[in-house]
Design goal:
There is one protein chain. By secondary structure, the chain is an alpha/beta fold. It is built from 17 helices and 15 strands. It folds into two domains: 181 residues, glycerate kinase, domain 1 (3-Layer(aba) Sandwich); 288 residues, Glycerate kinase, MOFRL-like N-terminal domain (Rossmann fold). Strand 10, helix 13 and strand 11 form a beta-alpha-beta unit. The longest helix is centred in the last third of the chain and has 18 residues.
Length: 486
């Protein structure tokens, strides 16, 4: 894997990969659930972090319980909930994830939605979810288990004339636009019948509990899976501005372009003047010493905000937990640790330049250093890509800069916590000062591979891919820049 001239690089590669894998393993969904919730018989206790005591949902007050799980972590999240919730009467649900979990429950319908592009199951899962939520009444409690990847895995165009082929092309255009995830998901929210709060709107009378495992910045939680259960603060005007900013309209399929050009383009649900990005701050009557009934009657007039009032939102895990795990493990390994997440949503090349500069500044003072950076970078495609993703692009960009430090023991790891980078089956890659030299010896031109978005074959030939397989997790990406000086 590494050159003989610097035998210390191979153990440094191993240390970087171990830090990544162990940091992710420390972020257990079951442990996170148990920190926040506890089932006691028919009662669900929500454990309040400030120590003010638990709140309670009395499940006995509901005739039906629905569970809607979507995203890359849908399988593990669903398994944890069902293991702890002993009640089965009136329980039904939908699980849309990829790959399908080995352990399944007959009360749940499973769909293997596509990612990063939707497929037939993505649309079928959306239709099945809307059909199930249509049956929800005031005596129904709905658990929404939402994780990253849900935007592609479950989708259904608002315009019935738009089919799967055009929906796929729409998502392809978004992914290659170079826009950050918040702007991409603004377009998805206004395109889809299951995003931008529309799943909450599909069950307006039901009680709703959304358990979140975000792959977006915490300040933009309504972008998670394009916010299916949260009121949306983005507007049609935002949509038009984003389309113009990235000159996307000419690249969209005709039917999709015509949909967005409609003068009566539907607004997503939400008070556009009063909402801020993130989670709404509604006081909920769901959690109480006993179940409280809604004050409004079934026959009373309701505005769209009522669909969100009986809602509770809880973050189970986030990239913050991942960073803290990595920080603790790196310190245990004897590294001085610094964290810099400021390049979140930057272009991968800009992020690589910034973090490499920061890395060199810090290691001049702390020779044994681990610089941690979480979040995601963007890639703007101007051609059909080869094999690779944003993490490999970032790692290769760093490798080209690191070749100036041929005699030093440095390494950079960039990997996705879902175990998948772009259109590959690898999570990411590891680079060091010898990466480019070794790549050229194998007949690769590193700069050309970067230009063609084709980094995966290069890192595969070197044995420097990070391969975990699907993790059932999605806490964004983790970048580790490590110097092994004394």
């Amino acid at each position: 894997m590494t050159t003989v001239e610097n035998p210390a690089l191979e153990p440094l590669h191993q240390a970087a990969e171990s830090l990544f894998i162990e940091s992710l393993a420390a972020c257990r969904i079951d442990t996170a659930f148990d920190r926040r919730f506890r089932f006691e018989g028919q009662k669900l206790h929500r454990l309040i972090p400030d120590g003010s005591g638990p709140e309670i949902i009395d499940l006995a007050g509901y005739k039906r319980i629905f569970v809607i799980a979507l995203g890359k972590a849908a399988g593990p999240m669903l398994e944890v909930l069902l293991e702890r919730m002993k009640r089965r009467q009136g329980l039904r649900g939908i699980c849309c994830t990829r790959p399908l979990p080995a352990k399944r429950n007959w009360r749940i319908r499973y769909f293997e939605g596509g990612h990063p592009l939707p497929n037939e199951d993505s649309l079928a899962a959306a239709r099945a979810t809307l059909a199930l939520l249509k049956k929800a009444r005031q005596e129904t409690l709905v658990f929404f288990l939402i994780s990253g990847g849900g935007s592609a895995m479950m989708d259904l165009p608002l315009d019935a004339e738009i089919g799967l082929e055009d929906t796929i092309a729409f998502h392809e255009t978004l992914l290659g636009s170079g826009a950050p995830i918040q702007e991409i998901n603004t377009l998805r929210k206004h395109f889809s019948a299951v995003k931008g709060g529309r799943l909450a709107m599909a069950a307006p009378d039901a009680g709703k509990v959304s358990l979140l495992l975000p792959d977006v910045p915490l300040r933009e939680l309504d972008a998670l899976a394009s916010g299916p259960t949260t009121p949306d603060h983005t507007t049609v005007e935002d949509v038009r501005a984003i389309l113009a900013k990235y000159e996307m309209a000419p690249r969209l399929p005709r039917k999709v372009r015509e949909f967005f050009e409609r003068e009566d383009l539907p607004e997503s649900p939400g008070n556009k003047t009063g909402l801020q990005a993130g989670l709404p701050r509604f006081a909920s009557s769901l959690f109480a010493s006993s179940m409280l009934r809604r004050l409004t009657s079934k026959t009373a007039m309701k505005d769209e905000h009522d669909a969100f009032r009986e809602s509770v939102y809880e973050i189970l895990l986030s990239s913050h937990d991942l960073v803290e795990s990595a920080r603790a493990l790196a310190r245990q390994a004897g590294f001085h640790v610094a964290v810099d997440n400021s390049c979140d949503d930057w272009d991968y090349a800009d992020a690589a330049r910034y973090l490499m500069e920061r890395f060199h500044e810090l290691r001049a003072v702390h020779p044994r250093l681990c610089l941690i950076s979480a979040g995601e970078v963007t890639v703007t495609l101007d051609r059909t890509p080869g094999a690779g993703g944003r993490n490999m692009q970032f790692a290769l960009a760093c490798a080209l800069e690191l070749e100036k430090y041929a005699d030093e023991t440095l390494t950079v790891l960039s990997a996705g916590t879902d175990g998948i980078d772009g259109n590959t089956k690898s999570a990411g890659a590891i680079a060091d000062p010898t990466t480019t030299t070794r790549a050229r010896a194998f007949g690769f031109d590193p700069a050309e591979c970067l230009k063609l978005f084709n980094a995966c074959p290069l890192f595969s030939a070197l044995g420097d891919l990070v391969v975990t397989g699907p993790t059932g997790h999605n806490l964004r990406d983790l970048r580790l820049l490590i110097a092994a000086g004394e």
